[in-house]
């Protein structure tokens, strides 16, 4: 049986960040992921300057696609305005693989099926054992399902359903664009250019609200594509979206059980205004790693619930007053 000080289940940004911090603390870390990296990952791929800071990310040393936006275009129920802000886009196919390799952890492709506790250790599928176990495998994380589900049942009203497509495209408009609440969508749609000739377009909204209003994501997707085509943003592109779901930040009672932890989308930490998941995932992973390394408490109080606190309310009022 292969033993490590810590096993991280899931190699995305949360898992690789936790592994990276634990390796820095001198621990032997094994990362298990059901998919080999690099792998396709559905995500708009938008990261904030805070994410870059938390990851000690050096833009000039990063060998892959990286694009910086100096402003964003917001469309809010017929109002359009731009905000000066520094944000970045990456391709998750490249970004996740880079972070995982940088972590210095041992990485194995393995789908976790059974987690058992034997004394003070965790045993996974009779093949791997560890003293600390970190669940970082997203919404369907087996660590969450087997150890934490009964403590943190997910609230259906916080589930977000999405459709998106990332593809090679010679985009001409390099400005990131967001459309909120259009066509009844309880969420927003996006147009996110990527360096190297790639583009990500998509939409997401609260699944429970869409169901109650008999809204279908496929219909909303068709309207979004028509709008993008009319604006000349995706002219001639063949779009074939895929879907996934995740959970916005809600009440979380238990993030640690003994030496087992959950981080990122395994907890359900996406910001309640923008549905941003990478920032909270990275921050929670750092907090969990510090709790393990320093034998300290692990809680989520230091993670913001909003990506841009108060921004939308202030700007919508300002724009409405200017009409």
Largest sheet: 8 strands, mixed
Give the second-level CATH assignment, the architecture of the domain at 2-68 and 92-155 and 248-308.
3-Layer(bba) Sandwich
Mean residue pLDDT: 92
Report the C-alpha radius of gyration, rounded.
20 Å
What is the CATH level 1 assignment of the domain at 2-68 and 92-155 and 248-308?
Alpha Beta
List keywords for this structure.
323 residues, eight-stranded mixed β-sheet, alpha/beta, 16 strands, globular, 31% strand, 8 helices, FAD/NAD(P)-binding domain
Provide a descriptive summary of the structure in words.
This protein has 323 residues and is of the alpha/beta class. The chain has a domain at 2-68 and 92-155 and 248-308: FAD/NAD(P)-binding domain, CATH 3.50.50. The protein is built from eight helices and 16 strands. Strands 1, 2, 6, 7, 8, 9, 15 and 16 form an eight-stranded mixed β-sheet that branches. Strands 3-5-4-11-12-13-10-14 form an eight-stranded mixed β-sheet. A hairpin with a 3-residue loop joins strand 12 and strand 13. Helix 1 (13-24) runs parallel beside helix 3 and helix 1 packs parallel to helix 7. The longest helix is centred in the C-terminal third of the chain and has 17 residues, at 278-294. It is globular, with a radius of gyration of 20 Å. The model is unreliable at 319-323 (pLDDT under 50).
